[in-house]
Amino acid sequence: MKALKFLLLLPIIALLVGCGGGEKSAGNNAIRLGTGGTGGMYYAYGTELAKLIKAESNNRALDVKTTAGSAANLRLLREQFLDLAIVQSDTLSNAVNGRGIFAATGPGVGYAAVAGLYTEACQIITAKDSNINEIADLVGKKISVGERESGVLQNAEQILMSHGLTFEMMEINYMSFTEAAAALEKGQIDAFFITAGAPTSSVADLATKKEIKLLSIAPDVQNNMMKLYKGYTRCIIPANTYAGQTEDVQTIGVKAVLVANTDLKDDEVSFLTEFVLKNAKNLPHNSSNTDLNVQYAVEDIPATFHAGAAKFYDAQGVKVNIYSGKSGESVKASQD
Questions:
Q1: What is the β-pairing status of strands 212-214 and 142-144?
Q2: Pick from 254, 271, 296: which residue ends a domain?
Q3: Residues 241 and 289 sit within 8 Å (Cβ to Cβ)
């Protein structure tokens, strides 16, 4: 049985491993970047970042990998199948502290923060002509809560719980952004959750084919969630972000964080940190997000930083806690 399971995993391992683990230099091998599904902002961000790096550097390259999302990315970093990944700040917090789905593996080691990138909006999408007008109306409906091992799954569960709802009260599906958008278009599901920078390509594409609406989260629920769960912030999806969306949508969000395997060489991470900040305006991000700067990159990041990133920030007059190899490390950043 064990041999059979191993054989079934071989195609996945072959896809992710590439040239193997250990300390890597992109001058010899492309740096493996874990993103998410092809219909999400992580993938759009990663592919555009790879293009910009290729255009500027002859000896550096990113190999963009599609994955199930944040939780999967952190596991794959820890297991040396990825060198870089984009993850949600709330999922990163749980991983660093060994909480939630990471309780069995314990506090995370082997990866460290590089930079906060942009704010991800928690989005709940349904058809415009549906009778779903608020989150309480999801009871008894067919909904997608993201893929297994995604940060979306955790966000969906916490949003529902904050409204007094549980997964048992509806028909749950585990779909990627692209799968969920296609299913809603065909009437196979009634609503779906995503957490991503807005506009998100899969939702934007859906809005050109079918009239949709996004559900808001009431301010008092936002307050409760920010008190209960680490990593959430208020978020507004501006009117006209999607076709037919005539009003602002009030919701919550988390920060997308670039994280590196601690075996990735310091000079590579220093280069990447500087490159991401320098090219922020040319990279996909949340339309409601402020411009990325050093302060945003280091604030409210629930993990210590890679030594290569810390070297760059130090040159900008910003001190951050550096990963030391210990689990459960949190970050404190101060501007000199």
A1: unpaired
A2: 254
A3: no
**pLDDT digits 0-9 by tens, 106-126:** 888 899 999 999 999 999 999
74 and 149 co-located in one domain: no
Helices H, strands E: what count in the chain? Answer: 11, 12
112 shares its domain with 259? yes
Residue segments in the chain with a per-residue pLDDT below the cut of 70: 1-28, 286-290, 326-336
- Long-range pairs of 45-50 with CB within 8 A, sequence gap ≥ 24: 45/86, 45/117, 45/197, 45/256, 45/283, 45/284, 45/285, 46/86, 48/282, 48/283, 48/284, 49/275, 49/276, 49/279, 49/283
CA-nearest of 184, 155, 190, 175 to 37 is 175
pLDDT tens digits, one per residue of 57-87: 889 999 999 999 999 999 999 999 999 999 9
pTM: 0.83
Residue after which a domain boundary falls, among 213, 234, 254: 254
